[in-house]
Amino acid sequence: MKRPIEKPKFAQQFVLLMTIFIDATGYAMVIPLLPFYTVSFNLAAFGLGILMNVFALMQFIFSPIMGRLSDKYGRRLLLLISISLSSASFFMFAIATSFYILLISRMFSGMATEISIAQAYMADITTSKKRTSGLGKVRAAFSAGVIVGPSIGGFLSVFGYWAPGIMAVGLTLLNLIFVYFFLPEPKRNKTYNKNSNHFNKPSFITNLKNSFKKPLLPSLLFVFFIMTLSFAAIPVLMPFLTFAFFNFNEIQLSFVFIYIGALQLILQGFLIGRLSEKIGEGLLIIFGLLSVLIGMVIMPTIPSLVLFFILVAMLSLGSGLVRTAVPSIISKISSEEEQGGFLGIAQSIASFALIPGPLFAGFFYDYFGLAAPFYFSAILLLIAFLMSINLYFRIRKNMNKETYIGLS
Questions:
Q1: Please, which contacts does 330-337 make with residues 24 or more away whose CB atoms are closer than 8 Å?
Q2: Between 20 and 30 A from 321 (CA), which of 22, 139, 160, 232?
Q3: CATH of domain 205-408
Q4: How confident is the prediction for the chain on average, in pLDDT?
């Protein structure tokens, strides 16, 4: 029997990016509706925080598991499994008649890790020189879906919350067809098998201990954690703030998420590389933290629509700068053998930060009022900002010229 002809890599990339775009569209259709869905079950911000928390916890647990399984059993198979989990989560969202069904829906959604598997697939089919560009395309495809999804979900919500859920199920089923028929298993440089020693790598705990022995890394990881923790509060707080200040409904709130997605697409697709070349990642972290800090302090105090969108831009772009620049610095100060492990630690810490962030936001909102969670985040960001200034000068002082090119 003849071996099937392998599709050109550009065709694989196209199908993969379409898969991510469709997946992100379905995801973004339901996320802006969660606050209103929660209120319909007579639960306040803390209930929404639990939903966000469960999703983050499942992502934290299953991202490394699904990634390792994709190494062992193949990217294509795990993509199909992950998309099936997404479809199940959207179906439960559509039929939810209680908060507990909605909670199970978010658990299934967190178990689905299409993005991390897609990034591994893209790494398999791109050369080292084109790797960054390829991974950037994955992020851009996700951002494009985030832009399109809220508008569809917002308009469909007039028929009931079941309508966006059913539409998202349809999109994920379309995704399954795309992957099954048009996305072959990538040809990897190394041969992996179930009995290989590929899985005998240092554990997460071992890598974490090693990272704290390296200069600069603990500070970088702390800054990364604080930024992710603070920004994780935004999906919980935004619906309540926009309703209190501007009486936004589901459709109007969806446009806020479209705006955030568009800003992230512009930053990641066009600006971040040029900014890094001009001023370096060290300063990008400082400016990013300062931008988010200012936005957190002012946002709950002045109910101006124009100012609101300016502050949303400061929050979105500032967060994007930090969450891109920190991994870049980590890769530059790590040896080639350590890069993967330390970058994995950074992503795991970011996933872990998504767990308490929404819970803190919901708790402070419910018991101390609208401004409290913003100010709590601002205090944490101020500590991270001061640490980032110290970090910047330590980089300049301790790293040789060749190493910190691009950092200062």
A1: 330/217, 330/220, 332/281, 332/403, 332/404, 332/406, 332/407, 333/214, 333/215, 333/216, 333/217, 333/399, 333/403, 334/214
A2: 22
A3: 1.20.1250.20
A4: 80
